[in-house]
Amino acid sequence: MSSKIYFSDKSGAKPFSYYGVKALSSTVARIAPAVGKKFARRLLLTPVRHQSKASKPLEMSSYTINTQFEALHVYELGHGPVVLFTHGWSGSASQFYPLMEKVASLGFKAVAFDHYAHGMSAGKEANLPLFIRAIDAVQKHLNEGIHAAISHSMGCVAALNTINPLLHVLIAPPFDFYNGFEQRILSTGISKTLFKSVIHSVEQQHQMRFDNLLPELHLAKHDKVLIIHDVQDKFAQHDNSQAVVKQYPHVELISTQGLGHGRIINDDHTWQSVQTQLQKLQAQ
Fold it and tell me: Which intervals hold domain AB hydrolase-1 (predicted)?
């Protein structure tokens, strides 16, 4: 259900369902807050498991690692310095298969994983702190430096928080993350009280404050950041990436046209940009 909220591109007049949800959620928040928070948490923190259309490369290995929370499914292809891939909300590692094959062909070890409650990994709930926890667990398991990180959508936010590679490639990053997140949820009619209670419970559980996790706060600590973003992206605003580039001179933006939020991952323009940057690292 949460994917319908996060990836809705509806705007304009509010549907009748908005007023029904708003009245119901406001009432529940007032007379039965514990029940309301449990319902809202399930609604907002349950991703849809991505159904991959991509075939797993024949030479790719996969395995499961046990972590503090749930088991994570990891995928590896190739040999060499590690390039770590991290997907977004309701995505999976399989979205990167074509790009991983190309990266591995350059002489890198391409590593991806399914976040908690995504793909083949265990779990029923996900959120931004859990995305960060998952990346930390995979890095600890690999026990080697990350040469480059390639991330998509919400995965970009988590990656900037916790990976320190020579190169960050951010595909369709959702800058102004918290405001966009809140607006999409409140646009369904869910009461602000319930929304805030869920956010607070997640922050308490993981001892992370969302306002400390915003991607803009972490750009300055990374030396090389490449953003690849489509002008017509309906879910992560291209204008926000343009604003970031103006503020941070070391951040480069490559804009595409007509690829939207998902198809951009494996488009040839994306690959050409990634290839150029990785070859520059190899030449150093």
Answer: 83-175
